[in-house]
Design a protein that fits this description.
The protein is about 35% helix and about 30% strand. It has about 450 residues and is α/β, with parallel strands linked by helices. It has three domains: about 160 residues, Immunoglobulin-like (Sandwich); about 220 residues, von Willebrand factor, type A domain (Rossmann fold, 3-Layer(aba) Sandwich); about 40 residues, no CATH class. Strands 1, 2, 3, 4, 5, 6, 7, 8 and 9 form a nine-stranded mixed beta sheet that branches. Strands 16-15-12-17-18-19 form a six-stranded mixed beta sheet, with helices on both faces. The longest helix has 26 residues.
Length: about 450
């Protein structure tokens, strides 16, 4: 449905009318016989508004464009094009009503620039949450050359934008170089010299592990020979995501869960390139997403699609149910990379108990983000009672975090705590270290 307002006053016209009121009152007090000046001035302003609006021209056509697919946190461009004929518009502006996950406040304002009869404007925004967002309505306003009158239309739009997890790190030159230089390489290669699976015999060199010497083969060939083993492949790597309340809190404008999904998918991509199998698991009050193990890099989009369905839950996670469900899905020893956050000792206690049961059979890597706000509160100069109270609270929370981390380490859990832009590569480094140690297959 189209709602049109052919002529409307601008803010400038409204301000002129407001300023004219005290002037008219002053005239009435000083020279009552000149009272006709006020209505004449008002009528003149109305005529000027109507004439200026008429000179604004007629909207012939308008177009709106937004991409169908974007990634959370990554900038994308929204553009509006308008064709106006039969006038001399002074300015053209557009306002868009949209889903709040596409733009904070659910509104975008765009100023259009002139190119003969065509007016074009665009703005760059970044989606702040995954899911499906819609642009619902557009308002176009074009003013006359005096800026007193304007024409305006309001029309519904049908534009759906799918917001996917951020995969920018996977496309980055940094990861490409990392894969090329690491033990994995751009194509999964056979790795000799480590592992438990026999590959070949090679002449023993100084510096090799003496335990790799094959004494029987050395006796037959009358020279020292060492066993070269192939690195274990086909390991099971689970990327588990806590989708509860704390993980939905923003971290530099993007929810922690989205930061975690980006880091997890980046590490999963590297694992698939290395010949290992990857799986995604998400939970809050109950399990939300469980994928089968993916064994090939070309099937990576399945993990991406599954990650896109991880929802935001404004509730505390049930670690007991979630991690017990995950454990029941695993038939062999696996590396479990758990992205989580905790805000109070009670939830932390439940988390520790649940992780303790996982550690009995699996390797657990606990990943959390450094809290920049917490560190800022700790380092704030205590120049007021509020600052002192904030610093004390921050120090208490930091001590609780350290206590929980220490308990997890004593249980044998490996821990990563890093800034959000470094977590992905920190997880990859730790995964490769664990992989080289053959601890997963053990």
């Amino acid at each position: 449905m189209r709602i049109a307002f052919p002529l409307v006053p601008t803010a400038r016209a409204v301000w002129l009318a407001a300023l004219a009121a005290p002037v008219a009152l002053l005239v009435a007090l000083i020279a009552p016989q000149a009272w006709l000046v006020a209505p004449i001035a008002g009528a003149a302003l109305i005529v000027a508004v109507l004439a200026d609006g008429a000179l604004a021209g007629k909207l012939v056509e308008w177009r709106f464009h937004a991409p169908a697919d974007v990634e959370v946190g990554e900038p994308f461009t929204v553009s509006v094009l308008a064709e106006i004929a039969g006038g001399a518009p002074g300015s053209v502006a557009a306002s868009l009503l949209c889903d709040p996950r596409l733009a904070l406040g659910g509104r975008l304002d765009i100023t259009l620039d002139a190119d003969r009869m065509h007016w074009h404007g665009e703005t760059e925004v970044a989606a702040n949450r995954r899911g499906t967002g819609e642009f619902d309505r557009i308002w176009l306003n074009w003013q006359g050359p005096l800026g007193l009158g304007a024409r305006q239309i309001s029309q519904s739009v049908t534009s759906v934008v799918r917001i996917w997890p951020d995969l920018a790190p996977i496309r980055s030159k940094t990861l490409e170089a990392y894969l090329r230089d690491s033990e994995i390489g751009m194509i999964a290669r056979r790795q000799r010299g480590e592992g438990t699976q026999f590959e070949a015999l090679a002449e023993y060199d100084a510096g090799m592990d003496r335990r790799r010497i094959d004494w029987k083969a050395s006796a037959r060939h009358t020279k020292l020979l060492a066993r070269e083993n192939e690195s274990e492949r086909n390991n099971q790597i689970v990327f588990a995501f806590d989708c509860g309340k704390a993980m939905c809190e923003p971290l530099e404008g993007v929810p922690r869960i989205d930061r975690a999904v980006t880091a997890g998918l980046t590490a999963a991509y590297v694992a698939l390139k290395g010949g290992d199998r990857s799986m995604l698991f998400g939970f809050a009050r109950r399990p939300e997403v469980i994928t089968p193990f993916i064994a090939e890099a070309r099937a990576f989009p399945k993990l991406q699609e599954a990650a896109a369905t991880l929802d935001y839950q404004a509730e505390e996670p049930n670690f007991t149910l979630g991690l017990a469900t995950l454990s029941a899905q695993l038939r062999r020893r696996s590396l479990i990379v758990l992205f989580s956050e905790f805000t109070d000792p009670t939830s932390a206690e439940m988390m520790i108990e649940s992780i303790a049961r996982l550690v009995e059979k699996h390797i657990v890597l606990f990943v959390t983000f450094e809290d920049a706000e917490l560190e800022a509160l700790q380092s704030t100069e205590p120049d007021s009672l509020a600052a002192i109270a904030g610093a004390v609270t921050a120090e208490s929370l930091a001590q609780q975090r350290q206590l929980v981390h220490e308990r997890l380490r004593r249980m044998g859990v490996d821990i990563i705590e890093a800034p959000h832009d470094k977590v992905g590569f920190a997880v990859i480094d730790r995964y490769l270290r664990i992989r080289r140690s053959e601890a997963i297959a053990g």
